[in-house]
User: Fold this.
Amino acid sequence: MIKVVLLGGGNVAHHLARVFINSTPVSLIQVFNRSIKSIEGLRGKVELIDDYNKIKKADIYIICVSDNAIEKVSSKLTIGEALVVHTSGSISMQVLNKHKKYGVFYPLQTFSKDRKISFNEVPIGLETSNKEDYIKLEKLAKAISTHIYSINSKQREQLHIAAVFVNNFVNHLYAIGDDICMKNNINSDILFPLIKETAHKIESMKPFEAQTGPARRGDNIILKKHLKKLTSNQQDIYKLLSNSITKKYGNKL
Amino acid sequence: MIKVVLLGGGNVAHHLARVFINSTPVSLIQVFNRSIKSIEGLRGKVELIDDYNKIKKADIYIICVSDNAIEKVSSKLTIGEALVVHTSGSISMQVLNKHKKYGVFYPLQTFSKDRKISFNEVPIGLETSNKEDYIKLEKLAKAISTHIYSINSKQREQLHIAAVFVNNFVNHLYAIGDDICMKNNINSDILFPLIKETAHKIESMKPFEAQTGPARRGDNIILKKHLKKLTSNQQDIYKLLSNSITKKYGNKL
Assistant:
């Protein structure tokens, strides 16, 4: 049984709390948050606290707060020989080095409040200050997911950047597609199958090979025609991404 | 039984040919292509021809060729009272107006040679020069898909632009994510669950609401940190899309 204390009250903390509560090898003994109110949804399932002095002994302490609060929360923890980790994609493991044993437990997924996540498929990137702790942390990760990766701080930062491209920016392009449909009285549901197939396709072929469309073909006529129909902001994005595609494939526009 | 002749030998033509061959209400009587070689894969399943004079009588002729060849193929067809349609997202229906009955049959999906598509879920946008033909074309569409939409030429062009954003450009962002992983010795499979969840999430919430990430939060520190780690081309894309997101949500960077 791995005893865990979770610190944080945001989306990721809630998702982690729920999956730990339902995991047999894990005993989530407390969830800490400076505001109890935002973790009320977990009441009855785990002990809720807002006082650092009440934090109990555990094997692993997980700091699951916003990037700029990690160091502050860490500084208030007195945990002796236990392992403390954070869950951030962009903060170095070293921010926790006032503790004896520290590391990172980075679940790479987009978490929303009201959306269930099958945690079993969420990739978790692990890093620890020493090998022995890696085994301990891996045990915890394996209790909730089958996709465990050893990822150092440098890689993790790059991975986070990659995630910004394939999640944040991709979602913004979905929003533009949605805007275009709405403006033209088209039910934007019509885009869902294309969006899903685009995402699933790259499991069986590299995105480099999967690329299609006017920019890939170097079809200047369509590109010019499309540009005329867009807002100024959409035009900028259309031009830049089309140029980036044509450069990648050695086409000339 | 709807008698169909298909003209074309590309990816879309192959996918359509296969689904028509397996559809009971449809009788695919011929596939025409100027090069028989590129449709050899269909031999034994349907009559293959490369001579316009051998084209048989049918109810619907589907011109499924590249945009710039549609008019040429259409000009060589003599079909009398039958309905002729093309499958393009960007070409007006009027390009076929030398015929008495014409329209558009636009399957909105990304088709690759070696990837099976569940055609039942492919949205098909229909347009015809008169109402009577719409019913005929709808019957054909319903034989292979449950997602039928009435889409006029102006809407179709806009839909095609939306598809460029949510398919072509999204795939290019996947390629950048893949590049970043490869450069840093990270197995890019780690991105798949995030990519899939990003795509599936917008079925239950609008992309506008699903937006997360540093630009959405107005987190200037992370943005600057990320920019330093990118190639010049990646920087341009990162900046433009981040600015577009912050503008959309009224944040300032």
About this structure: The mean pLDDT of chain A is 96. Chain A touches chain B through 91 residues (CB under 8 Å). The longest helix of chain A spans residues 153-183.
